[in-house]
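Narrative summary of target 7.
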Amino acid sequence: MAAAQRTNAYQREVAERNVEAILDAVEELLQSQGQANISAVAAQAGVSRVTVYAHFPTWAALLEAAVERAVRRTMTALQAVHPEDGSPVEALDRMLAATWQHLARYRAMAAAVAELLSPEAVTRTHQAAHHTIGALLARGQADGSFRTDLPAEWLVTASIALVHACSDGVRAGQIEEHDAAGILTISVRDLFTGTRPRAEPAMRNTEPAISQDAAGQATAQQPDTDRRPVHGAPASGRRRPGRQ
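Modeled conformation, tokenized:
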């Protein structure tokens, strides 16, 4: 019985070690070559193709597992900036700066995700991000720092989409690398805090008012601003004195 337990524990340890080596190989190949396949991953990890398929039956399943691990590691790294401390807006800025710095190593993977993973798979792989960002969003909504007029889940999803859009922009040469972090921070901060349109100044009424005279006829009255006497003209109700 004890021998069997030791054997099972050893097999689990070997399997876990193989999985980590396989996922490491995916990251390394995507970063160095921009692409990968099962055969290349097996060679890079030092395992057989059979071993790779035993854990990941398809390339999509393997890529999904690699992305999920990358997101989980990124969210773990964000805990170093203590998103629970300080104002929610300041914590958001710190999280975005750390996210962008950590995301640099995964840009090649992000490109593969955009091409190969379905939206459903992307959502599954980003559960850790949804949880971490959602917790900060809830804290900011509770103290009035963040908007509440849009669904929380939508705000979290949109913020993650902005991170990927910024990464795509840098990769396509549309955004300069040194500008990316600032652009991302402003975009997500504005998304979370919301913008309120300025109240338009009240318009002064310049239309003539309609009243009725003693005979019941409708007559137009000019606005009060037009009733002031013109300089040099007699005031209303006064007669110009005649010559003697």
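The chain has ten helices and two strands.
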